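Contributing new records

If you add data, match the layout below exactly. Sequence lines come first and carry their own label; structure lines follow with theirs. Keep one chain per record. Anything else will be rejected by the validation script.
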Amino acid sequence: MLSTASANGPKRTRATAALCFAACLVNVASGISLSSPTTFPTLRRTNMNAASLRLKGGAGEAAEVAEEALAAANVAAKSTAELVAPKVPKDLPRAKMMPWYQKADDDWERKDGCEVIKWDSSLEGFKGALQHRYGKFKELKKRIIAAEGSVENFAGGYVKYGVRRSTDPAKPGIIATEWAPAAKWMALFGDFNGWNRGQYPYTKDEFGTWHLFIPDKPDGTSVIPHNTRYKIAMTTSTGEETTRIPAWASYAVQAPKGAPTHPAYDGVFWNPPVKYEFQNELPVTPRSLRIYEAHVGMSSEGEPNINTYDLFRERILPRIAKLGYNAIQFMAIQEHPYYASFGYHVSSFFAASSRCGDPDSLKRLIDAAHGMGVSVLLDIVHSHAAKNVIDGINGFDGTTHMYFHEGPEGYHDLWDSRIFNYGHWEVLRFLLSNLRWWLEEYKFDGFRFDGVTSILYKHHGMRHAFVGGYGEYFGLATDMDACVYLMLANDLIHRVRPGAITIAEDVSGMPTLGRPVSEGGFGFDYRLAMAAPDMWIKMLKEMGDDQWKMGDIVHTLTNRRYKEKVVTYCESHDQALVGDKTIAFWLMDKEMYDGMSLLTPANLIVDRGIALHKVIRMVTMALGGEGYLNFMGNEFGHPEWIDFPRIGNGWSYHCARRQWSLADQTHLRYIHLNNFDAAMHGLEEAFPFLQEGVHEYVSLKNEGDKLIVAEKGELLFVFNFHSTNSYSSYRIGTAWAGKYKIVLDSDWPEFGGHNRNDRHAEFHSTQQMWNDRPHYIEVYSPSRTVIVFARIPETPAA
């Protein structure tokens, strides 16, 4: 029986739900451009009966459907101008718990961590290891509660540490608190006192924490004004006289030329006269997760060289919403001195990158996304830290072990960075507080945890293939302190923010990573399907598409741990970096510069490239998991790799940009790939097939014909990878009897296809076993295409 649970999700306030799917049903002649700045139409799922969709048959009727939806969308949608405009502040309710959210467990003390075995019987042999791990989690959580009252309080360190305003009306002034147990002397200095090192010294308590209070001036003004640069003057454990940025600094900028601390970074006291007030409620977490991975700095078309949060909000955010993505994953938000590190060498963990603007501009961006119904995820880096000393937390008090492991254990050789000591009390406070800070202060809706493999193992995954069985996951090479940290982190996140999303980047295949902590898992909502992009790049690089194995494609995309949700993708930022190639580049190479004009016929390389680009994306989205991710620009086949400014390229920003205008030009073929990406999201919005638990069955993997046929959700997918063969009257097995229509065809002309199927044709099923399915339909399957069918209800007799 087909699952129809997909119709139960909430309605969003934005008018981008299924926006391009409706447009796909309209002939090109109807005049609706998928790259037009006009508000897009919405296809409304009305009168759904089982797995059926009511579609109108003629081209004129399809246009009427789109026009009606367009009118409704214009009424319902919030325009970009409205989202940017000032509004009357209001008290916003906290996120409500929805049935599909992961729930924090209040009965955790009675559990033993073995419930997860019910999903994987192979774990029975490691029951003792699961009990030991969960026991360590319980032990640490009890210690925290005993000392701090709750894990939430423990994770509120940002309220105590750093440089901040006093909240005591009887004692107005500046309070500064810093943990630096081995430091010999500390003082606060900066622009506010002419960088006088000795004027405002801290005092140290018995726990290694330093304290300072600076009362307000007699006239009631603060000694440290808003937006003032400052730093800690320190005598380290070795006697060195130096400077540090407070580890808990909420804002940091590079010191200007001529400043005494140039070229290092300084802390900035951020205390605006009017605190930013969020205008939009937190979005309901989507059941079908469609993520747009973005880097704000390199999102401009070249001017400015480094884009800003405000310009991203004004220019890029509406594009993402119109394409139909319901989540954005921001990279490179935590402050990092080296731009070319892609944001992965973090120096100030509580500070938003100042290259792109101040803290309030990032809040405006997140607020605007929420107004569009888009969730915002932070690519959080807790797997390592930058080696920077002057403007980082490495060697903060003069020792090498304050936040990190001592000796070789504290260094990551491949990343040239420091490894946290996840078993240290104050390190746990620092990292857990960091998670809560981004959730509470900036209203992020969750995290993609970078480098989870490195966190989990003492060898950090280096030179390990993870092919030796479950013993590799539960042996002595696993860092138990790190495992417990990840469990605590997910437990905290889901308590603080109902509906928060956490995603683990892990290549090891660690079992239970995507199961709740209450069962004995790590608590992540999703894990990344990192084998999928590796498969596509390997196939494109090493063999022609006539050698591709349908069985290998299906196996790689569907080989997922039972009951652990997966975010799949064809390519991310990794494949876009200089030294590698995107899928579009592997397919078309230099022809992306010379052969993309619609003013001349497509050559064979471009025709093949555009066709396979669409099929690869659709099969990955359809079969790869419960979520889908795309890196910005790849949706339309961006023709450049990413190369940040560095010595080797003369510090050029030329390849640290995105050429959005290519997708807007109606005479270039990039628009076709952009249209298809939007159509995929519209299709999934109208017929959710990424949701956990939907029906999924692959009925055909034909190596000779190069065909894959799959049922997913309420839809029937037919993928033809053959380079030349198109098939007439091809029998497609299906679980469902009835009448079918095409709801998406990569061969439609708006997607750069050849329009070889009648888009209004109907297909009637025959009751006969075919490929282990009780019914079949006969279709025309053109080469290098994907066609998606949906059932429509029979017209009642008059």
